[in-house]
From TrEMBL:
<dbReference type="InterPro" id="IPR023674">
    <property type="entry name" value="Ribosomal_uL1-like"/>
</dbReference>
<dbReference type="GO" id="GO:0000049">
    <property type="term" value="F:tRNA binding"/>
</dbReference>
<keyword id="KW-0687">Ribonucleoprotein</keyword>
<keyword id="KW-0694">RNA-binding</keyword>
<dbReference type="InterPro" id="IPR005878">
    <property type="entry name" value="Ribosom_uL1_bac-type"/>
</dbReference>
<dbReference type="GO" id="GO:0015934">
    <property type="term" value="C:large ribosomal subunit"/>
</dbReference>
<keyword id="KW-0699">rRNA-binding</keyword>
<comment type="function">
    <text>Protein L1 is also a translational repressor protein, it controls the translation of the L11 operon by binding to its mRNA.</text>
</comment>
<comment type="similarity">
    <text>Belongs to the universal ribosomal protein uL1 family.</text>
</comment>
<dbReference type="GO" id="GO:0019843">
    <property type="term" value="F:rRNA binding"/>
</dbReference>
<dbReference type="InterPro" id="IPR002143">
    <property type="entry name" value="Ribosomal_uL1"/>
</dbReference>
<protein>
    <recommendedName>
        <fullName>Large ribosomal subunit protein uL1</fullName>
    </recommendedName>
</protein>
<dbReference type="GO" id="GO:0006412">
    <property type="term" value="P:translation"/>
</dbReference>
<keyword id="KW-0820">tRNA-binding</keyword>
<dbReference type="InterPro" id="IPR028364">
    <property type="entry name" value="Ribosomal_uL1/biogenesis"/>
</dbReference>
<keyword id="KW-0689">Ribosomal protein</keyword>
<keyword id="KW-0810">Translation regulation</keyword>
Amino acid sequence: MAKHSKRYRALLEKVPASREPMPLEDGLKLLKEFDTTKFVQTVEVSAKLGIDPRQSDQNVRGSVALPHGIGKTVRVAVFAQGENAEKARAAGADLVGSDDLASQIKGGMMDFDVALATPDMMGIVGPLGRVLGPRGLMPSPRSGTVTTDIAAAVREFKAGKIEFRNDKTGNVAVPVGKLNFEVPQLADNIQAFMNHLRSLKPSTAKGAFIRSVTISATMSPGLRVDV
C-alpha cells in the first residue's frame, strides 16, 4: 500500500470520523479546504452501484451535459466523411477523418478525450474496439457518441458533456469540475450527473441502485456525501 504524503495525512485529519454521509454542500465546502496543491485539482464523483457488472444487461453507460462544464479543454475526435466531416470541423472538432483517422489510432495516436462517429462510420470504427474500448473511448449509441447530428454532439462535448460507464466492480466515476469552481456550481454539476445516473437503473438490478456517493479531488481524501 502506498505511503501517503505529509500533506495528505494532514487532510485526512479533517475528514469526519463518522461513517455517515454528510450533506453535499457541506462536503464540497470541506473539499475546497483541501486546495493545498500548486495546481487546480479536478473534482470527481464516484458512485457505488447496486448492479452485477458481470451481467451485460446490468451495465450502465451514458453521457450527460453538465450545466457549468468541467473546467478543461476537451479534445474531440470525429469519424465522419463528406458533409458530416465539414459540420464536425465547423462545430470545433479537433480531429476529423475516416480511414486516415483509424490508421493514426492504430499507430498509437491517442491525442483526444472523446471519440464521436456517425452511424455510417461504424464499419471503420468497429475494428478499433480493442484499442478504444479499454480506454473508455469506443463510440456507442448508448452514450450519445454515435449520432446523426454530429455537429450538436461536438458542441456538447466541447462544452463539458461527459461520458461514463461502470467499471468491473460496479462503480462509476466522473469529473464534475475543478476545485476553484464555486460550491453551487459543483453542486449543480453533481446533481445533474446523479439525476441522469438514476434514470439509467437497469430493470434487472435489485435493491438500492445507488449504494454510496463519494466526492474527492485529484490529490485529496474522499468524502461520503448524501445527494
